[in-house]
Amino acid sequence: MTGTTRPASREFARYVLVTGGGAVVDILVGGLLLHFDVLSVYAASAAGLVCGAVAAYLGHEFWTFRAVAGGRLSVSRATKFLGVCASTLVVRGAVIWFLTSFFSNLVSDIAALVIAFLVSFTINYLASKLLVFVRGKHPADMPLD
Fold it and tell me: What's this model's pTM, rounded to 2 decimal places?
């Protein structure tokens, strides 16, 4: 393994761990709120996504992409990540609506939440990697002090 490949593979492994941790937070918060009938499936999904996104963003800034982030929070990356999460939330809500509207006899609310999570997780991963944490794309980022 070359010196160039090893950091990239380590970064990917960190990405998977942090994103997986954010996903666990996401699905646990949403699932618990839904299970205990605290919120509707839409609101529980949104709450889970927000909690998971905050955990993942901080993990990516300070561990996964520390070479890009320099160990500092960035207004530019935070704004872009917020945009990605908002888009993810719209997609997740659309998937839940579709499943509960057209397949309510076949799909429980929990199953709809999990399916919507998987779809939005994939979109969030791709958008974060390709649009937010891009090496060399943020030279003028303003640090958050």
Answer: 0.69
